[in-house]
Target: DUF3784 domain-containing protein
Amino acid sequence: MTATMIIGIVAYHENCYSKDLKGATSFLLDNTPINGFAGNVVTVISVILGMLLLFLPSPEKYLSLLALIPIVYRLVSYVLFERKLI
Model:
């Protein structure tokens, strides 16, 4: 399991995450795993939203850059942690 801590990505053992961190929410730690079902859904929605925002008029199309944040987190999580496990 991977989760965000401030700006970085932290890996947790699945059992440790489910016991200790699943219900805990704080300013520094988000309790939603990046590589779980919810993280995958957010990534897909971000891709669709980012592509739709690109067709807005000139100044507003830069809002599509905000949709890149969950996509980048998911890709970094995959490259740093998940790829090594496969």
The chain has a mean pLDDT of 80. The two ends are 14 Å apart (CA to CA).
